[in-house]
Automatic annotation (TrEMBL):
GO terms for biological process: DNA-templated transcription elongation; DNA-templated transcription termination; regulation of DNA-templated transcription elongation; transcription antitermination. CDD domains: KOW_NusG (cd06091), NGN_Bact_1 (cd09891). InterPro entries: NGN (IPR047050), NGN-like_dom (IPR006645), NGN_dom_sf (IPR036735), NusG-like (IPR043425), Rib_uL2_dom2 (IPR014722), Transcrpt_antiterm_NusG (IPR001062), Translation_prot_SH3-like_sf (IPR008991). Participates in transcription elongation, termination and antitermination. HAMAP family: NusG. Keywords: Transcription, Transcription antitermination, Transcription regulation, Transcription termination. It comes from Anaerotruncus colihominis DSM 17241. Belongs to the NusG family. This is Transcription termination/antitermination protein NusG.
């Protein structure tokens, strides 16, 4: 099966067992040679600055304590493997039915990094191709690949107005 058939599922674990569960899922996939059913296994973390005893230090914190994200194709075998890992209490979903994350949820959670290529740069003239300013022409002031946004200055009624748009709402002028 193709990688595109894989979806992200949320697995509930005992608190503090997230990393162990992720490692054990990866080992089970390796041992049972189920690579075609499983993609990535992630424990989402963020780096925060902690001040303790007047000392600053960077600490990794779990964004969703008690949860592990697994990209997989849901079959009886894959469900059984994950469900029977020590520390797993079940999949997130109504009853015992696992529900995959939607594309929007995956993007909002920042689970997958998507490589975004833009064919314009700061200072280039672009046409707004979507949204309420469709058809306007402006100049690119800033490109934010992290959040997939672009800041463009457009001229409206004789005034330059900076607007923030999604990257797919602008196109280069031919």
């Amino acid at each position: 099966m193709s990688d595109s058939a894989m979806r992200w599922y949320v697995v509930h674990t005992y608190s503090g067992y997230e990393n162990k569960v992720a490692t054990n899922i990866e080992k089970a996939v390796e041992n049972r040679k189920l690579h075609d059913l499983f993609g990535e296994v992630k424990v989402p973390t963020q780096t925060v600055t902690e001040i303790k005893d007047n000392k600053k230090r960077e600490v990794e914190r779990k964004i969703f304590p008690g949860y592990v994200l697994v990209k997989m194709i849901m079959t009886d075998d894959s469900w059984y493997v994950v469900r029977n890992i020590r520390g797993v209490t079940g999949f997130v979903g109504p009853g015992s039915k696992p529900v995959p994350l939607t594309e929007e949820e995956v993007q909002r959670l920042g689970v997958e990094q998507r490589n975004i290529e833009v064919n314009f740069a700061v200072g280039d003239s672009v046409r707004v191709s979507g949204g309420y300013l469709e058809g306007f022409i402006g100049t690119v002031d800033e490109i934010d690949l992290q959040d997939a946004l672009v800041r463009v200055t457009v001229s409206m009624m004789g005034k330059d107005v900076p607007v923030e748009l999604e990257l797919d709402q602008v196109e280069t002028l031919n």
